[in-house]
What we know:
Blueprint: H1 22-37, H2 52-62, E1 74-79, H3 82-103, H4 106-112, H5 123-126, E2 129-136, E3 138-140, E4 146-148, H6 152-169, E5 173-174, H7 183-189, E6 195-204, H8 220-223
Amino acid sequence: MGTVKSVDEQAFVSYYLERYSDDEMRLRSRSFYEWMNSRRSVRHFSPDPIPREVIEHLILTASAAPSGAHRQPWNFCVVTDPDTKRRIRIAAEEEEYESYHGRMSEEWLKDLQPLGTDWHKPFLEIAPALIVVFKKSWDQEEDGSRHQNYYVQESCGLAVGFLLAAIHHVGLVALTHTPSPMNFLSQILQRPDNEKPFLLIPIGYPAPGCQVPNLRRKPLEKVMVWY
């Protein structure tokens, strides 16, 4: 039977988090929910640029998410170059056209009808920035060896959740876009073999007169089971 390595005490630091009263927690939990509930996916963007420092802090926030063995198996590629955005739009629309004309089931297409989506994706050029999230199943060490990453899919999902909350926090909007397959992103951005596209997220300000579908989210009793 193997032995468990002892933990280096110097690898840990003290941690303190302010504790709120029950009433304060109720207030904060309700206000945060109401604020996050106002977040919407947007397909109509203003071309107005976003300060670079803002985007950098958004990425740092996403990187603060928990990950398997703290491997942080992600990379965030920020695209603002117009020519690169156009190449991404053209490639994405080619894949989306195939999806809307044969790949998607009738049920899937029916579910998309209330959202008013189709294979045209002009927002990929109009939005001032695209954040392409890549997941990394392994990392290349300095000696050339591979170091495995763990719970990659789950870790990247958590990071994107942090990212979307941060985007909403600064008054920007976003769309989680998943053209399938997404291999064209690796080719256009010339990413290494250990990185695979996870999500394409245009971000920016909502366009004047922007509209979103009149959606209703599931009530609590439909999404929570209390034991």
